[in-house]
TrEMBL record:
It holds the Pfam family DUF1176. This is DUF1176 domain-containing protein. Residues 1-26 form the signal peptide. The lineage of its organism: Bacteria, Pseudomonadati, Pseudomonadota, Gammaproteobacteria, Lysobacterales. Keywords: Signal.
């Protein structure tokens, strides 16, 4: 599966690999795709593992584990319609742990597996060496691949420092939960600077000025949206500076813009906005230098790049302008386009209270 490259109009660049974090004492996000499972751990070492496979219909297994000694796993099964426990099959056969599937409470297809962490671990232990979890019999029954589950559990244990403890998902041992490192604290949200909006005349003047002064950037990025049809914007950052967005590429379901910071009073060249997110892109920090479905309001800048029109994959980010710089508030990413809910992408960065 592919997610958008911010510089590619067809959004077809290869998925960038994100490096694994050290133990939970370091608040470095983790993103790893392992066979049919993806693991994402954010800057608080809260981990989410999702098992899904290509094809329809499917089951989606979702495991969420908070970091720290008291973090307990929560496991759910997602499908188009609720599944009866008696219908679950592991590699074609009934298995005792299917009784841990909780009855549905409504028409939604999200069901909890197990009532506590011990039951979740028991279910995972029962299925982790299997290959296929199916709701019914036959090829047409909704199914989830278990390929990669054991490695996903091990990665969570390593990231959260659970190896050898009674709380481990895979390699449990005699060490007490107290040996698990505390969860790193999320940063406080940035208090954004909110400036009065520009009037139409100033906004138009700033866009025209940046179009002229940033012509080399536009040519270098092979922007194909013509200026007279582009959705360009200008927004006040404060009394002295503005943010200008020049639309560069446009596709069937989204467009991307180059962003510039510019003095409102005239002197000085515009500065291209490039923002780094705390993950790795082929061994280097990922830099977003073109912003998709860009939005700005109340001092908040947003980027929402869909991997395809269904929005079952992609990345999104929000930054707050603090009067000097843009500070990352939220970052979400999912590299696979495998039919999940639109915009339901794992979290890799959060601030306190999210």
């Amino acid at each position: 599966m592919k997610i958008p490259d911010s510089r590619t109009p067809l959004f077809a660049a290869a998925l960038i690999a994100l490096t694994m974090a050290p133990a939970a004492s370091a608040a470095t996000p983790v993103y790893r795709e392992i066979k049919d499972w993806v693991v994402a751990c954010d800057n608080t070492a809260r981990c989410e593992a999702i098992g899904m496979q290509e094809g329809y219909p499917q089951l989606i297994l979702r495991l969420v584990v908070d970091a720290g000694p008291s973090g307990e796993p929560e496991l759910s099964l997602e499908s188009e319609a609720p599944v009866a426990a008696r219908d679950l099959r592991l590699d074609g056969a009934r298995f005792a742990a299917s009784s841990l599937l909780q009855p549905a409470t409504g028409d939604e297809g999200v069901q909890r597996i197990g009532q506590d962490g011990a039951q979740v671990r028991a279910f995972l232990e029962s299925v982790r060496n299997g290959t296929d979890l199916r709701a019914g019999i036959g090829e047409g029954a909704p199914s989830a691949s278990l390929a990669g589950l054991s490695a996903a559990l091990l990665l969570i244990d390593e990231t959260q420092g659970r190896l050898g403890t009674t709380t481990a998902l895979l390699r449990r041992g005699p060490l007490p939960a107290a040996k698990v490192p505390a969860a790193p604290a999320a940063p406080l949200p940035t208090r954004a600077v909110v400036a009065p909006p520009l009037d139409d005349a100033e906004a138009s003047r700033l866009v025209a000025r940046v179009r002229l002064q940033a012509a080399d950037d536009v040519r270098h990025e092979d922007c194909f949206v013509e200026p007279d049809t582009a959705y360009d914007e200008a927004h006040a950052l404060d009394d002295h500076e503005a943010l200008v967005a020049l639309e560069c590429w446009r596709g069937a379901y989204q467009s991307s813009s180059l962003l510039f910071r510019v003095r409102r009073d005239g002197p000085g060249a515009p500065r291209r906005l490039r923002l780094t997110v705390p993950v790795q892109d082929e061994g280097a920090p990922r830099v977003i230098d073109a912003f998709t479905n860009v939005g700005f309001g109340q001092g908040q800048l947003s980027h929402f790049a869909k991997g395809r029109g269904l929005a079952d994959c992609g990345e999104s980010a929000t930054w707050a302008f603090d009067g000097r710089d843009f500070r990352l508030q939220r970052y979400h990413r999912l590299g696979w386009c495998r039919g999940g809910n639109p915009g339901d992408w794992p979290t890799l960065w959060r601030t306190r209270g999210d």
